[in-house]
Amino acid sequence: MRVFITGGTGLIGSAVVAELLANGHSVLGLARSDASVQALEKAGAEAVRGELTSLDVLRASAAQCDGVIHLAFGNDFSSPEAVARSLEEEGNALRVLGEALVDSGRPLVTVAGTPWATGRPSTEEDPQPTEGPVGQRGVSVAGVLALASRGVRSSAVRMPRTVHNNGDGGFAGLLTQIARRSGVAGYPGDGTQRWPAVHALDAAVLFRLALEKAPAGTAWHAVADEGDAVLDIATVIGRRLGLEVKQVPEENFGPIGPIFATDQPSSSVYTQKTLNWTPEHPSLLADLENLQP
Question: Where in the sequence is the domain holding 21, given as residue range(s)?
């Protein structure tokens, strides 16, 4: 397939691009800077200049490809307004990408987050939340999956709170960044809350499998670690950075503080069995050992 991808130079996206190319696909990647163009071309992909708000570019690029993978997202979590703006941009982009594929039978794979369930790990059957700090993403993802009734082989790969590679990425990466700035390896809540995780290279395989064979209107869980305790995560970060480990108010983590403090383990048993996906790369706690002081 010729695949159009947004977010193809990020932590997850660069791994997805490499996975697609290694398995015989060609890639057209959205690039918002000269550096992104160079990164995509160095990887062996083509590049088209534009941003997630460049709706005409998204429409034309999707129309000329055999499938689409959407990964781009504004990573500004500095305020509720910034998060809302990123969610609105993503929703508009997904609407345009979906419209370009209507009645084509072509795949559209979007990124989502694993939901949470009370007292148990969430599964692929649990609905995406449509309320709360990132509820708008759930609304956008539901719109993508609904395209199954309009001739689009749409699917969602739900990512855990931490997608990592060499000790960086996701919520654990944010904890590390905050620890470096504050001088304390802090954690919200009592530290027993669990975050699921996956290595970026394992997640990339699942995106390819979803592109190639996921039925229309389906959701999948890219989860390798069902749930690592936040205290355990902070403890490794503190040890690697030589910092004190202690509880801090969730308000210290900005608008996503309440999410940080939530117990949210997740399962991928169904995904692994159905799509024959087997995570093979290091766990989060093992990967955090790569952190440099």
Answer: 2-162+198-224
Kindly give, in sequence order, each residue whose CB lies less than 8 Å from that of residue 285, ignoring residues fewer than 6 positions away: 225, 228, 232, 233, 236
The per-residue pLDDT for range 63-77, each reduced to its tens digit, is 999 999 999 987 666
Q: Are 87 and 130 in contact (CB under 8 A)?
A: no
Residues 132 and 214 in one domain: yes
pLDDT (tens digit per residue) in 20-61: 999 999 999 999 999 999 999 999 999 999 999 999 999 999
Ramachandran class of 191: left when φ > 0, alpha when ψ lies in -120 to 50, beta otherwise: left
Whole-structure pTM value: 0.93
Based on the fold, state whether residues 48 and 28 are members of the same structural domain.
yes
DSSP-derived letter for residue 24 is: T
- How many domains, in total, are found in the chain? 2
CA 250 – CA 259 distance, rounded (Å)? 9
